[in-house]
């Protein structure tokens, strides 16, 4: 019998993985993606099913998120703790650097923006609260994806059809394959922060850093967005250093690890 703490951790990982999928998934897929023993996955899925957090589709031999998990997410949405904790942190960040900032969470293959703090005399952005964008195109999304296990990223992007485009120009050919995404995320991990330059909006760039929860998993990302001409690329690491400081503070407030 798996002892209580690893079982709880595995259960949360399973629910998080299932919530990120487009539809029901097989237990074997969950076990492979999370590198868990199949026997443990089946046992935990059985318990989750009993309590309504998971639904079993016997004809498909797959599992989906249950109504109890939805009720939890509804409670989270009502309380909006990340937004409440993140708003004053972003306001302080914007006051310090004079550029706009936002807080985003991963939602399937997209990022969902939950806080935006616009700097004075800076242009309006597409990252309004409630907007969703393809995660692989944004600095926030790349920061979040880089903090996930490779198998989970692969599950999110199984083929070319998963890679949406915002811009498609010679200057911005886009990420079209898992191999290309893998190289981008390796660069994010190496430098410690994510960037995008014109991938979402021409002439606008962003620098993003992941915020981790108590288990070290990416709970959200803070990103700063600015006109490309306003900040030279050589200054982006210094900007990322400031973003990391505020991401660490939000991590601390949600009792995470950084």
Automatic annotation (TrEMBL):
This protein's record includes keyword Nucleotidyltransferase? no
Please name the InterPro entries in this protein's record. GAF-like_dom_sf (IPR029016), HTH_MetabolicPath_Reg (IPR050707), Tscrpt_reg_IclR_C (IPR014757), Tscrpt_reg_IclR_N (IPR005471), WH-like_DNA-bd_sf (IPR036388), WH_DNA-bd_sf (IPR036390)
Alphabetical list of PROSITE patterns matching this protein: HTH_ICLR, ICLR_ED
Boundaries of every HTH iclR-type domain copy: 5-67
SUPFAM superfamilies named among the record's database cross-references: GAF domain-like, Winged helix' DNA-binding domain
The identity of this protein, by name, is: IclR family transcriptional regulator
Pinpoint the IclR-ED domain residues. Answer: 68-256
For this UniProt record, give its keywords in alphabetical order, as a comma-separated list: DNA-binding, Transcription, Transcription regulation
